[in-house]
Amino acid sequence: MAETIDTDILVIGAGSGGLSVAAGTAQLGRPTVLIEKDRMGGDCLNTGCVPSKALLAAARVAHAVRTAGRFGVAAGPPVVDPAAVQAHLRGVIAAIAPNDSVERFTGLGVRVLKAAARFTGPDTVETEAGQRLRARRIVVATGSRPALPPIPGIESVPVLTNETIFDRLPLGGHLLIVGGGPIGVEMAQAFCRLGTRVTVLERATLLPKDDPELVAVVRATLREEGVEIVEGAEILRLEPVPGGGVVAVLREAISGGERRIEGTDLLVAAGRLPTVQGLGLDAAGIAWTAKGISVDAHLRTTNRRVYAVGDVAGGPQFTHVAGYQAGLVVRNMLFRLAPARADYTALPRVTYTAPELAQVGLTEAEARERYGDGVRVSRWPLHENDRAQAERETAGLAKLVLDRRGRILGAGIVGAQAGELIQPWVLALSRRLSARAFTGIMAPYPTLGEVGKRAAGAFYSPALFSDRTRRLVRVLSWFG
């Protein structure tokens, strides 16, 4: 007979969001079952954040060797061993994997089932192994998968995505990348630095959701390092090359003619789709669209017993968002007297190229659309930062978007370690602080962090050193 399991909390999906929910509810004493059909840790650990950042780290070292001469250090061209690079990636994943393992979660009191699952009713789920589960609360955290754009011929050519590229590592040759978003540009720089010729094909502009002023710094760096970037790329079709490889046929923006670009490999980084197929959502009365499961501000679905977190919930697709949402759902399921609402006002986002591009809050364009002429912008360039000069990392700037009184509406930094430097501004925005909060603090010297303080000070400089202030100082001087 099929096993029937009754539990308090049932979590479907063992990615970042699902693991956080399961760990939280189990440690708070609630019987919890976690179902995962594939690998523990989900996309982030196995095919996303972790291997991509490990690859970027290897590429950064190769670039450091290649450019060591600027520091007066003699070094030859880097010799890249693809097998050793892949071993590095696997080693990083292996080091982190115990935190997401079945053994760890079993130790926390979670029952882990390795199987696909689907809803059979509002509070019931069945696994492919025949187990039947009934739960008081259910959390769907099934993540997302790579989206393949409807390009004619895409089904006739070999396609790499984030799920396969780290096992392939096409070092050498010519890598074509469809998509100039964060994944596309990170992989473009990584593979270029490791010795691959790279062409990025972006139908709009590079990093289209980011501040164009900050993106310009990333674009210039990528091109300087040898990445070919084709913006406004209308791909008419893809064609296989006999013996291997692919040809992308583009429409020329000016002439309207065709341009053919041949590559040895094709990476598609053109967005992601929520994983909802096969879940039986309709049987549970859960509304969903092509963008994901419909949730309210409390992350509850149209079935009041069921919540959704992470990419499948149709919101911002970041690991840290999934973790944030998981915390809200644990609170809302177990402490129902004061339900928490999701608030993405201070959502940070980082593209981990070199230089990194980090933002929080509104971009300048978004702020002007919302507040019009009341928006002010304050900047400070990295080449005016002494630590940046010492490190030879002077490309970039800090940019603050403020209202007339200096209240922070958004902040963006492009430069070395921007992902670290943005964090004080995340706190400032979440606490509704003004730029003045940064002008009086003591920043250690010399640090890259000074750039934020200088950007804040630059906002007040015109008033501080105005004629009016000069007259006040002159009057005060009369009193000794």
UniProtKB/TrEMBL annotation:
InterPro entries, per the entry: FAD/NAD-bd_sf (IPR036188), FAD/NAD-binding_dom (IPR023753), FAD/NAD-linked_Rdtase_dimer_sf (IPR016156), Pyr_nuc-diS_OxRdtase (IPR001100), Pyr_nucl-diS_OxRdtase_dimer (IPR004099), Pyr_OxRdtase_I_AS (IPR012999)
Enzyme type, top EC level: oxidoreductase
Cofactor(s) for this UniProt protein: FAD
Keywords, in A-Z order: Disulfide bond, FAD, Flavoprotein, NADP, Oxidoreductase, Redox-active center
Phosphoprotein found in the keyword field: no
One annotated GO molecular function: oxidoreductase activity
Occurrences of domain FAD/NAD(P)-binding (ranges): 8-326
Domain of life, source organism: Bacteria
EC number: 1.-.-.-
Family under the similarity heading: Belongs to the class-I pyridine nucleotide-disulfide oxidoreductase family.
Descriptive protein name: Dihydrolipoyl dehydrogenase family protein
Originating species: Rhodocista pekingensis
